[in-house]
Design goal:
The complex is a heterodimer of chains A (about 110) and B (about 120). Chain A has about 110 residues and is mainly β. Helix content of chain A is about 0%, strand content about 50%. The chains are: A mainly beta (about 110), B mainly beta (about 120).
Chain lengths: ~110, ~120
């Protein structure tokens, strides 16, 4: 099983600041990496797939980068609606598909 | 537009089984996988498995082998997940989610079904 490790667990930032979230895979997942946003009481929302491709409706302030085992989600200028939990997920190996533990972005 | 509508909340006793449905609409049912992902209270996301509506083949996470069954009904474009031998740690929100073009990520998610296991 590929283990996905996200850091930090909690990120405290102010609106307008840049946020950088990290995701590390225990073995190479090539570029088969997705990022999701989940707000309290809401359903996860796909932000990024293929490590760097924004999903439909994802604002341009969200960008993904990385490959193999190291990935980053950057929010260039945090808006109030961006405070949420962010999960990475690898889909290179389906035995099983695995998610990271999440990074909570808070004020 | 793509919609995934799930059945309502369930309360089950330990050892029982639960079956949750997910009705898909707004796209061609057979072209995209349906994943099932669960989330225990206050916890992260856990992938359970996937079904290919085109043919009905399934892949399950090993953690659930022997307890998990995914099926689909082509006539109603509905996918089902059944989990048997329920334990208290199966208490979670169960989501169905579409994997576009049979991908491993999910671009549309159902609203979730809360399953509570309690004696």
């Amino acid at each position: 099983e590929i283990v996905m490790t996200q850091s930090p667990a909690t990120l405290s930032v102010s609106p307008g600041e840049r946020a950088t979230l990290s995701c590390r895979a225990s073995q190479s997942v090539r570029a088969n990496l997705a990022w999701y946003q989940q707000k309290p009481g809401q359903v996860p929302r796909l932000l990024i797939y293929g490590a760097s491709t924004r999903a439909t409706g994802t604002p341009a302030r969200f960008s993904g980068s990385g490959s193999e085992t190291e990935f980053t989600l950057t929010i260039s200028s945090l808006q109030s609606e961006d405070f949420a939990v962010y999960y990475c997920q690898q889909y290179n190996s389906w035995a099983p598909l695995t998610f990271g533990g999440g990074t909570k972005v808070e004020i | 537009q793509v919609q995934l509508m799930q059945s309502g909340a369930e309360v089950k006793k330990p050892g029982a089984s639960v079956k949750v449905s997910c009705k898909a609409s707004g796209y061609t049912f057979i072209t995209d996988y349906i994943h099932w992902v669960r989330q225990a209270p206050g916890q992260g996301l856990q992938w359970m498995g996937v079904i290919n509506p085109n043919g009905g083949s399934t892949t399950y996470a090993q953690n659930f082998q022997g307890r998990l069954t995914m099926t689909r009904d082509m006539s109603t474009t509905t996918v089902y997940v059944e989990l048997s031998g329920l334990r208290s740690d199966d208490t979670a929100v169960y989501y169905c989610a579409r994997g576009p073009s049979n991908s491993g990520f999910a671009d549309h998610w159902g609203p979730g079904t809360l399953v509570t296991v309690s004696s």
